[in-house]
Automatic annotation (TrEMBL):
UniProt keyword annotation of Signal present: yes
InterPro entries for the chain: Peptidase_S1_PA
Record's keyword terms, sorted: Signal
Source organism of this protein record: Oceaniferula marina
SUPFAM superfamilies for this protein: Trypsin-like serine proteases
Superkingdom as given in the UniProt entry: Bacteria
Native organism taxonomy: Bacteria, Pseudomonadati, Verrucomicrobiota, Verrucomicrobiia, Verrucomicrobiales
Name of the protein in its database record: Trypsin-like peptidase domain-containing protein
Length: 254
């Protein structure tokens, strides 16, 4: 009798493992499709950060650093980016040093598409509290007329739950041929106040995040008051700024 029970338990365990494997295979297959569908909307963002240093009012030197980030197209020629990836918080990096003053300027902004082609761009709007910035194609750029990139659908409020799988899509640096990349994360916490945020593990900063169905959830950003840990800022907060960013973008054409 004991042998018979052991056989039954063994069969049940085998079936459970087989079901888990099938579910995991389905998740990966969904993620691959989302990745293939959404990667064209993800661009690389390159720029140069010029830092001027003064100490007790005296010049302390200048530095230049090349920056690389990811962005997602949210409207024609308009790209949403995690603000801190293109404008790092220098004061937080060096700590509180009396007499030390750091000023930074972002320049030489470029949008990089899947083919590795770069296009002149400008920062048109940012919200430091939300950790969100918008970079627009410069219509006066040499190759502006050739720019083509489809936008993600930001019009829906997509709700995700604890332990839901998330899919993040990014683009690697030009040293790695600007290849698209995909990561998977899982919702570990949901912050509801003062604004809705999804805490996840597995997807790095400035990447658009999608559900297994390919629905756009939001962008990973660092909020001003929560440090460098990337959180998913839902699309509804982005929509509030997209219209303002479009107005700023339109001024580039004047």
């Amino acid at each position: 009798m004991k042998l018979k029970k052991s056989i039954h338990w063994g069969v049940a365990a085998g079936l459970m493992l087989a079901n888990v494997s099938l579910v995991q295979a389905d998740i990966k297959e969904d993620a691959r499709k989302v990745f293939a569908d959404q990667a064209p909307s993800v661009l690389g963002v390159r720029g140069v950060l010029k830092v001027s240093i003064t100490m007790n009012g005296q010049p302390g030197g200048n530095q230049e650093k090349e920056l690389w980030s990811n962005g997602v197209v949210v409207a024609d020629g308009l790209v949403a980016v995690a603000y801190r990836t293109i404008k790092p918080d220098l004061a937080a990096n060096v700590g509180n040093r009396p007499g030390l003053k750091l000023e930074s300027e972002l320049s030489e902004l470029k949008l990089i598409d899947a083919s590795g082609e770069d296009y002149d761009a400008k920062l048109v709007l940012h919200d430091e509290d939300l950790g969100l910035a918008f970079v627009a194609l410069n219509p006066e750029g040499d190759k502006a007329a050739d720019f083509k990139a489809s936008a993600v659908d930001c019009s829906k409020d997509v709700e995700v739950l604890h332990l839901d799988e998330l899919i993040g899509v990014g683009r690697m640096s030009e040293k790695l041929r600007s290849e698209a990349q995909v990561n998977m994360g899982r919702v570990s916490a949901i912050v509801k106040r003062p604004r809705l945020l999804y805490i996840q593990q597995g997807i790095s900063m400035s990447k658009p995040v999608f559900t297994q169905k390919g629905e756009f959830v939001g962008l990973t950003v660092a909020l001003k008051n929560t440090g460098p840990v990337p959180v998913v800022l839902p699309a509804k907060y982005m929509r509030k700024l997209i219209d303002q960013a479009k107005e700023k973008q339109a001024e580039l054409k004047k």
